[in-house]
Amino acid sequence: MNIKNVVLALAGGFLFIACENDDNTAGGLLLGDYENGILVTNEGPFNNGTGTVSFISDDLSTTEHTIFNKVNNADLGNIVQSMAFVGDNAYIIANVSNKITVVNRYTFEEVASIDTGLENPRYFTAVNGRGYVTNWGDSGDETDDFVALINLETNSVEGAIPVDFGPEDILARGSTIYVAHQGAFGYNDKISVIDTGTDTVSDTIDVSLVPNSMQFDAAGNLWVLCAGKPAFSGEETAGALQKIDVQTNSVSTTFDFNLTEHPNHLSIDNGTLYYSLSGAVFGLSVTATTLPRESDFSGLSIYGMTTKDGKLYTTDPKDFASNGSLTIHSLDTKTEMNSFEVGLIPAGIYFND
Amino acid sequence: MKLIFSIGLVLFLAPFIQAQDEQVIVLDEVILSDIKLLQFSDGVKTRVLNDSVALRNQGTFTDNLRNNSLLYFKEYGYGMTSTVSFRGTGASQTAVVWNGININSPMSGQTDFNTMLSQGSNEVTIRSGGGSTQYGTGAIGGSVHLNTTLRFNKHSDHQLSTGYGAFNTRSLFYNASLGAEKDAFKIGVGHYASENDFKYLGTDVRNENGAFGNSSIDVSYGRLLGKSNIMKVYHQTFFGDRNFSGTLTAPSNDNYRDLNSRSLVEWTNFGAKKVQRVKAAYLYERYRYYPNRLQDDFSFGKASTFLVNYDYKYRFNKFVINGISELQQINADGSSILEENRTLFSGILLVSHAPTDRLRYGLNLRKDWISSYDSPFVFSFNSRYAISDTYEVSLLGSKNFRAPTFNDLYWEGAGATGNNTLAPETALQGEVGQRITFKNIHVQLNGYFIASSDLIQWRPDLSGVWSPVNVKDAKQYGFEIESGWKKRVLGHQISLNATYAFTKSIDTSTDKQLLYVPIHTARANIAYAFGKWTTYVQALFNGYVYTTTDNQQDLPGYIVGNWGLEYDLPTVWGAATTMAFKLNNLANTRYQNVAFRPMPNRHIYFQLNFKF
Q1: Cα distances (Å, whole numbers) of residue B611 to A269, B53, B176, B582
Q2: What does DSSP say about strands A190-195 and B378-386: parallel, antiparallel, or unpaired?
Q3: B interface mutation test: which of A76, A113, A139, A322 has the most B CBs within 10 A?
Q4: ipTM score
Q5: pLDDT tens sequence across B432-486
Q6: Around Cβ B586, how many Cβ atoms within 10 Å?
Q7: Which one of A70, A333, B158, B564 is at 20 to 30 Å from B148 when CA atoms are compared?
């Protein structure tokens, strides 16, 4: 116990010094210990454990692990799937525990816990003061999938929109929400369009099989990356990158991958789309007419990935039974800049600015 | 080639070498089902858990072994899946052997120790160290043997036991052994069930979805045909219906139902110098896993094994030579494995020699020929030497293997794919033992070293699909001390058993201790009896275990004690009745055997045993 306190005190001390040197925080006044940094959600071990959140300060001088547990002396729950920010709060989704923990994103003090009305929750977004969370429902049932509506004042589930099976990634633009139906433990090929005015599915867009990630470009086009069915399904299909015109809700461009190629982790930075494929990262301009042949990075182990301000962030889960790492590469020079140890099975990378 | 020739010679020429049969009934050959355990294991540490230990230990088979041996169990919640670790090796590196036949699942390569009942009609023997030459795949860390012993004399013994305890746990067992000069019959029927909804200490949460109900039946029959032939039939069927409990952070509503059925027919012809035996066995296993027990959807796996075995044993000049050939056909099928067959032929040669009264040693060889992969040639050397009447030393060495399972080879689906190019895991090991035995006391000390290579590990490839590879090397070393003391003075009986094991199990590439291998474990059992009363205390110390491969996270160690009290009631109408009371987790210790899965708090169990 004493050692723990010492470690905490030391970590806090470093943080304080680090913050003092940070010109961005006028007068050293911080909203909390975890403002201005990178947060990594670690899924944690399957079944027998809890997920965690790691913090890395923006100047990369400080890292701190299991911050939620330290601040609250409690567990987030099993398989921390994702996190989202709304105002001063962060919403942390524990998939197997069917729980969303609401914390102050800067102090990481628990604000509320939402543990009813969710079943296999996956991803969160918010529109006009309401939260929308994709849920698989019972994973053996393909007809009970839904998007839960969260009242962000009371932090409780106040409704559900039934959707097609396997809703995964969720993205909002204006008052419209797009849900990618990756297909849970099966395979699906749809994007649901939800009108938040009526909280109903207003349209469904047919895409390639297994849409796993979505991004908007500056022109307002929705890009969807589809993995295709894997070899072990017995009916392997090729991945695809598709552009959707959200005025007509139709696919305007499709880039097909080879049959054995199953891309993942679509992200966008400064007009360039990035995705991972078999340990490599490829980039292409939103105006490109073909898929890139050459990768920008290769030989990486990628479990989570994003890009921001000229940097590529990837997480490596190692052997899935020990602490993983977060690695930062420069998109410009294509070289590794930093690497940090994080928690067990790191998957989500978020910027707490 | 020479080896194959020698085995061939023993197997096929031997029947013609008709020795002068002296028609002496070798008792062991008659009553035992796995004679190798006795005859070709000189110097190997074996420990027999007899019926009284089993009866005393109301609870699961895991409970029984955990409290009475050095085996470490990883139990995914009380009564749930329970896998064993023997000397720091993995769950599929322990062979479970039923009447001489390896019964590890061909699909997983393991045996769930909660899919067996303690109080069946089987005798349990724990054999430490490698035994692949005799028992085949998986006998690396050691093997657990379940044997049925038949008694050929006039008797009629019945035992009925019924119990009830906390968390609505109930048990009912009936065992009978009947015999005449030429016939022996045994039957055991058992049921053990529990709501298992104990409260997690220090929380408001109960162990939800943890209910289980297990039933089994064992039947065996033996008949002497003339003076030199015996026919034996053994059968066992187990039904399990378990919900799989949740954890501190993860709720659960799944259910698992399994059926294991084993049948064995055996004919033995024996004389003074030679014994020949033919065996045929059929093993069937099936499981159904319901991810949501309220729905009909399930995934399944099933496997059947058929084997025939011919065994010829010959004695001369203090030598015993045993040649065994076996043909096995395994078929497995499941929701996520493609239906596959495996044909396996084994040739085994066992030699035992006792040049003097004090020295005995043996040499065993084995080679398997398998349709799906290349199996290594394995061997073992075992010896024991009695330096004095009270002091004995043993020296052992062996090479052992673990075959890739059907899951390893043929899995297809759910984010993973099998690898049909896998090779078997192999392990080389050496062991030194010494034992001091006086009238009332014994102490045994064994030190061992195991070097395992090509361990099969499931890993994700670059696109995240999991697949098994022969990737890891590991080494295990450690020592075990077992001691026992008993004393009887003026009707007072006291006995004490204490064991301690130091176990290092190291991943050679990282130099870290493997997951869930406690470095220190210790047990102590004290029993005291006077007149009609018996009382005992069991204490188990389980040291901390690592839960991550970088050894950064661990699960704390714990000490758990149990206390029991038994009283013999007066015999009524020929039935001797014993009342037994047991208080488990005496100190209400809060502990976890697997992380985030709290184990039961203090609870009682009451049992009535009738013998007639």
Answers
A1: 80, 16, 10, 20
A2: unpaired
A3: A322
A4: 0.84
A5: 999 999 989 999 999 999 999 999 988 887 777 888 989 889 999 999 999 999 9
A6: 15
A7: B564
